Amino acid sequence: MKKLLYLVVALSFSSAHAGSYDDFFRAVVSDDSAAIRKLVALGFDPNSPDPKGQPAITRALFAESPRAALTLARLPGTDPNVRNRSGETPLMVAALKGEPEVALALIERGAVIDPPGWTPLHYAAAGNSLLVLQLLLKRGAAVDARAPNGRTPLMLAVLHASEEVIDALLLAGADPQARERNELTAADLAQRAGRERLALRLAALPAR
């Protein structure tokens, strides 16, 4: 009889946990910050990954649920450096998605600004996210950080961002003559991207 009681309790707990899991990620995707706070207060782990291994906060950012992402970024239990299966941190994804409030909350809670390899500044440049890029630079991000392929944030900006972002990087001291793994400069990449005027401008700038 006692074993039967334990089994009933275990099954009830498992069912409740499954329900909480579904409710939590439903709240994340629907941008329901109140529901997220309620479930976390009841003991749900805010770092739980979705079925595809995406931590809740990066799932919120990719789902374009800014209130949910900001709520998770501010929760004491959220790991600001948790990585998804692609190795991306919440700060990287916030930079890519252009969410300065989320980025600031993560930084204030200890998010690493300059991890080895790809950095949040690379992601801000690739996402054409001027406000996050300026925030990262103000907080000391390495302007010429090197990705595994040798590319700097300026090189990413040349391929994906506006001249405002490019100018912000140059103003912060980015080296326009740096070369990536295939010996290409930012000017070379601009030329390949069909941005001839920008390529000429960058080619004329001195190395730093």
Query: Quick one: how many beta strands?
Result: 0
Overall residue-averaged pLDDT value: 92
What is the CATH top level name of the largest domain?
Answer: Mainly Alpha
In DSSP terms (H or I, runs of 4 or more residues), the helix count works out at 12
Strand coverage percent: under 5%
CATH fold title of the largest domain: Serine Threonine Protein Phosphatase 5, Tetratricopeptide repeat
Poorly predicted ranges (pLDDT <50, ≥5 residues)? 2-16
List the domain count as a whole number: 2
Share of helix, binned: 55-70%
For the record, the CATH architecture of the largest domain stands as: Alpha Horseshoe
Please outline the major beta sheet. none
> What structural category arises from helix and sheet content?
mainly alpha
Structural account:
The structure is a single chain. The chain has 208 residues and is mostly helical. The protein has two domains: 1-87, Ankyrin repeat-containing domain (Serine Threonine Protein Phosphatase 5, Tetratricopeptide repeat); 113-208, Serine Threonine Protein Phosphatase 5, Tetratricopeptide repeat (Alpha Horseshoe), CATH 1.25.40. 57% of the residues lie in helices and 0% in strands. The termini are far apart. Residues 2-16 have low confidence and may be disordered.
Quickly describe the structure:
With 208 residues, this protein is an all-alpha fold. Helices cover 57% and strands 0% of the residues.
Topology:
Blueprint: H1 2-29, H2 33-41, H3 56-62, H4 66-74, H5 90-97, H6 100-108, H7 120-126, H8 130-138, H9 153-160, H10 163-171, H11 186-192, H12 196-203
Helix pairs in contact: 1-2, 3-4, 3-5, 4-6, 5-6, 5-7, 7-8, 7-9, 8-10, 9-10, 9-11, 11-12
